[in-house]
């Protein structure tokens, strides 16, 4: 039996005009800016001017994933559809996809099966132009920086210490390491340079953490682009770039409204990397979803050790958000993977391995309940290859240990398949909670890192290389000691070793590099090499994408 | 006395909702895709499905300009406003501005004074995202090309003969000459590379010449990206890139609807360079303006020797367009400049120099009437510094020589200042015309070049360097001999020497380089170095741009 592809399912959907979706969400016409018939931007002034009480915020996160991903976005969308099925006023808030994966390996990123946001082609291709605007702001800053050096370098910037890279929303390995400014005196100043994919630009993180346009401009002006010959930081504000950058971003700051296949209003806005940045949709999008819905369902990148940790410790802290419940997505496949099953065998029933993989899930649940003190439910995201015995086992084991659990069949059945999970989420949202952060901001950088490793990862503690120790000291001297930490670590393990599956113990996490993202307002702790510019595979997905004469797109997954 | 800045005038305008503008233009709702409240895209299917008779096409061009420009866009907009004043159903079709000049020296490009298109901030900043889409398509092709080489180079592409460059919509001299693919085996293949500004990308020319989405894809697939080790051309089609590129461009192909300050429907779409490309708005935009209006007013870049020549010989020929009249814009300042007055003295009355500069204008008018056989009128674009004696002299001299002439005061007075010109244009459009091209396609490349130099520039003939002669032979062997020619020449003179002002005689034009733009379908003839990536000035305009907390932009000119 063949399954329909995501794009086939998406294109079969009769979408409601975005004006209807807006009306359903209670957005007055004056706050709506249509982008075509099925997309719109929402004026952020609605946030200030509405007197509706904020809805409940629900975070969807996951166990440590396999490389295939565990369906967080699908579950997030399906949970929202399920809440609608049981009569709730719900909004979903997701990240925007990058063009890189669309043309590379992964394909689109707007949910899957019968739990998607639409129009999926548009959402995956340019959408409302936010990422291009971010790229333009990033590259304007780069051009102004190099122009400053070319025009006499009044700020005394050391071309060898420039940290600002150009960006493009594309998988283009050829641009990772370049030398630019070649061609002689009139063509710039030769220096080493390189490109990141746009989602890895600090501007993306800045946009996603900004509370309004004034905060956006202030953050942009604090962005560090490099250091002087005497090692002082140089900022975008020093180059007078923040005004023009804000002008480029003024529309990108407005959250985008679309819909799920079942016409639940969906906000899709922002998409920072989940390693060197915090991996969540924008603060404004999340607040807008809470302002409009009685339930706002959102997600965070990677597993809960990275995604939920940063969502809670960085985003919620900076934005003053208080979640009501957490959903931890698990799949039978990923649990078997954590139980030691090889990739080729993941589709075969294996109850023993499944049980052996459970501690990974349980430790994430434990973190949510006992570190962050939030009500939590496990959503088992059903795959067609799962057997009934496997699904029953996970459910039984969770119940045995007092863990809330619900089977989610949203990929195959849409909202109907999310009703059980929705009912559980509604119940949890009524529970009182004592939301806490995993660490406080007032310790030293090393202390904060150590707390994350011990409390969230359950390791022995952090180890800083000599270089990282020196960087920590410098950052504290520069006044950045009180910033939250943004961990850049493998998403496949609680540890910094992607091969340590399950719930490893007795490991140390080594931080090799500490960098300040002064605009975003966090310190990035790198535990290894992080790829900020992906490459295309041997046969890029782009080769299969086509458009017919009516403009209908095929080959997008 | 101070004048209001363009942005101040633009922001004082109470715009009509774009739905009202669309209704006024006779665009049914099903063809309209709103982008915010004051911008929209028009579905190109309207072109096929409407049964309205096409309106008259009027081209606005100019004498050889001074570096300040002679106000073609301003006159184009004001003429449309003037036609509305006298009760005509009119549409205007313009090019989209690039972000490069906005942040560099020139500022915005949406008309000036009381003859502008609005919302000017949006039109100048991202607009509906077309240029970013073009950049993404351009850079996807580049990434697929380098990835092909990295993954084994089955097509045998010579990395030293790659002609495809990356692009960004920014003035960034640092990127003119780069070496990329550095960093070792996993990071690409080191080679020389470089960036153009997006408007100089062949994709821009392709989009602007495409008649529909099928033609767009066919043109993209013909784009040449480089040559093999045995010197065979390699195309985007060879890389299977045309489908994904078309998918990226499917919305960019739809023309954008905005309005003039006086609420005349305006289409602003596409903006190819006027040197290495043909410098006009898109074919689809022009056809749409003719389909909707009884009069469609459009413009072409630079002076008439370049802009009108390419508009008529390339765009009208490819698209089967037939203009009804031509407006040649002249200013008192530019005429004095052609009469030998130095820049510093251009604001002082000088009747003698003015008369001495007239032959430049008259030769352009003569070309329109006697080469292209089109009715023609001179529009004197009045500046605040012009004296009455000067304005009177130009008008009297034109009349004396039987040249139609009208004073245009649209910069200061809007449509009211364009009524005289509008009346003259209406009259000319009723005249029969015998529109002809300046050259036919069936001669050799050198013959066509020679014809342009003799008939349009009034020089002695063309000279090809040895390299250009060899290139002409190669292009003819490859089957490109029948393509029209796209001249890349200084815009300041009829000749290839920017210092030869007025109507020079006895000069030869030297073509140094011939390149095929196989997707656009023309041969670019370069007469000197053409800068395809501008730089920022000492104090970029970007430093003065700002946004307040309500999102209102200041400092954009």
TrEMBL record, chains A, B:
The gene is fhs. It comes from the Bacteria. It is an enzyme of class 6 (ligase). Pfam families: FTHFS (PF01268). This is Formate--tetrahydrofolate ligase. Keywords: ATP-binding, Ligase, Nucleotide-binding, One-carbon metabolism. It catalyses: (6S)-5,6,7,8-tetrahydrofolate + formate + ATP = (6R)-10-formyltetrahydrofolate + ADP + phosphate. GO terms for biological process: tetrahydrofolate interconversion. Belongs to the formate--tetrahydrofolate ligase family.
């Amino acid at each position: 039996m063949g399954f329909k592809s995501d794009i086939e399912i998406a294109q079969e959907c009769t979408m409601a005009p975005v004006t209807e979706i807006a009306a359903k969400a209670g957005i007055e016409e004056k706050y709506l800016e249509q982008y075509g018939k099925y997309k719109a931007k929402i004026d952020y002034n609605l946030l200030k001017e509405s007197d509706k009480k904020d809805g409940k915020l629900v975070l969807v996160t996951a166990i440590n994933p396999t490389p295939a991903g565990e369906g967080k976005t699908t579950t997030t969308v399906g949970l929202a559809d399920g809440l609608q099925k049981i009569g709730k006023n719900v909004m979903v808030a997701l990240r925007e996809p990058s063009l890189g994966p669309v043309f590379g390996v992964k394909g689109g990123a707007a949910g899957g099966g019968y739990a998607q946001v639409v129009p999926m082609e548009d959402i995956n291709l340019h959408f409302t132009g936010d990422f291009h605007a971010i790229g333009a702001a990033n590259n304007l800053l780069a051009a102004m920086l190099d122009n400053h050096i070319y025009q006499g370098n009044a700020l005394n910037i050391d071309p060898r210490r420039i940290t600002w890279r150009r960006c493009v929303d594309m998988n283009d390995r050829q641009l990772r390491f370049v030398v630019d400014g070649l061609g002689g005196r009139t063509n710039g100043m030769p220096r080493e340079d390189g490109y990141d994919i746009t989602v890895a630009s600090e501007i993306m993180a800045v946009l996603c953490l900004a509370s309004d346009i004034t905060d956006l401009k202030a953050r942009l002006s604090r962005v560090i682009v490099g250091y002087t010959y005497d090692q002082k930081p140089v900022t975008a504000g020093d180059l007078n770039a923040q005004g023009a950058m804000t002008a480029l971003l003024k529309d990108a700051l407005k959250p985008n409204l679309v819909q799920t296949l079942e016409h639940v209003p969906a906000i899709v806005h922002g998409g920072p990397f989940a390693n060197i940045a915090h991996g969540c949709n924008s603060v404004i999008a999340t607040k807008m979803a809470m302002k409009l819905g009685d339930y706002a369902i959102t997600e965070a990148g990677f597993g809960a050790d990275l995604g939920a940790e940063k969502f809670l410790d960085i985003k919620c802290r900076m934005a003053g958000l208080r979640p009501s419940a957490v959903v931890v997505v698990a799949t039978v496949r990923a649990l078997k993977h954590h139980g030691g099953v090889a990739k080729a065998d993941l589709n075969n029933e294996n109850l023993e391995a499944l049980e052996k993989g459970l501690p990974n899930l349980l430790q994430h649940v434990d973190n949510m309940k006992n570190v962050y003190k939030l009500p939590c439910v496990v959503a088992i995201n059903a795959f067609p290859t799962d057997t009934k015995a496997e699904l029953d086992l996970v459910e039984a084991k969770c119940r045995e240990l007092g863990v809330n659990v619900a089977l989610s069949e949203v990929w195959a059945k849409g909202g109907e398949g999310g009703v059980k999970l929705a009912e559980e989420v509604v119940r949890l949202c009524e529970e009182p909670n004592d939301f806490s952060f995993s660490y406080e901001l007032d310790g030293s950088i090393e202390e904060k890192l150590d707390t994350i490793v011990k409390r969230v990862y359950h390791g022995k503690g952090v180890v800083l290389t000599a270089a990282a120790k020196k960087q920590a000291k410098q950052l504290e001297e520069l006044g950045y000691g009180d910033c939250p930490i943004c961990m850049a670590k493998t998403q496949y393990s609680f540890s910094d070793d992607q091969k340590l599956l399950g719930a490893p113990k007795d490991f140390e996490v080594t931080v090799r590099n500490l960098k300040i993202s002064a605009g975003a307002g966090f310190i990035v702790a790198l535990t290894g090499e992080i790829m900020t510019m992906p490459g295309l595979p041997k046969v890029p997905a782009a080769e299969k994408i086509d458009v017919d004469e009516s403009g209908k797109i095929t080959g997008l997954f």
